[in-house]
Structure formats: C-alpha cells, structure tokens
Amino acid sequence: MRLRPRRRNLVIWSPSACQADWGRGLWSTRPARFRRIRRRMRTLVLLTAIGLLRLGAAARPRWRPLLTGVVLTAAGIVLRSSVAGIVMIPGMLSLLSALLVPVNPVTAGPRRRELERELAAYSTPGQRRDLEAILDRYPDSVTSELRDILVWQAAAAGRGREG
Q1: Is 111 found in the same domain as 96?
Q2: Are residues 93 and 109 in the same domain?
Q3: CA dihedral sign of residues 70, 74, 76, 77
Q4: Which burial class, exposed, middle or buried, applies to 131 when counting CB atoms under 10 A from its CB (0-12, 13-18, 19+)?
Q5: Do 116 and 91 have their domain in common?
C-alpha cells in the first residue's frame, strides 16, 4: 500500500481485492475532496483571526472591547445551533464592559490635551479656588469637561505626593 502523491487516496496493490469488497471495512477511504475543504476552512479561519488581530491592534484602546464583543456576539449568533454558540455570552459581556470603561484622558483628542495643559497652570490652591469660583457661575452642563479635568489632575497630583 502507498499514498498517491496528489490525490492522497489509498491505493491497494493486491490482486485479491475485488470490486465487490470495495466500500466495506478497510477498503473504504474518505475522498480527498473533504480533506481539501477542511484544509481550506482552517486556512480561512486562520486568515480571519490574523485580520481581526490586526484590526484590534489598529483600533483605539477604548474600542477594543467593543470590537471583541461585536466579533464574539456575531460568531455566537452564527453558531447558535451548536455548542460553539456559547461564545455569544462573553461577546455580550465585552459589549457591556465597553460601555463601562472610562475614557482615558491620555488617549483623548488634541483639544482636550491642550485644555489639560492650560488648566495645569492653575497649580496653587488659591488659583484652583478662584478657577472653581469662576466655574460655579456657569451651569454644570457647560463646565463638566473642565471640572473632570481638574478632578483628574488633583487625583494625579495626590498620587504623586503619596509615592
């Protein structure tokens, strides 16, 4: 017995093997077509995973859990009739966690970074009180971003003194 190089079907070199016995026991083999399909499916899954990893690396850190959640939820919906449909649960949890992740000021836009630099000039407690008195004249909906930056800077300064 040997394997033919291209088709990979089992070739039997026995004169006693008659066609009536084919299809029974050891004589039955799986056609090469199924192996090719399985190999192509594996290659397709591998290329999809590589593409998703590259897309995840290019995505902003805030959107990575959202991207993961969308991919896992979509896979869970497609595979809902099989056991692999269980991936929908971590996908939905990733979607939920994407909503709960706070915005990282470091990854914010250039306008916010410039605003942070300008507000860092108010470093003494007296200057901070004067700035907060000015901000109190306006509604919270207008000054919420400024107040968030001030709180974040105060917390960062407090961590710097403790360490």
Answers
A1: no
A2: no
A3: positive
A4: middle
A5: no
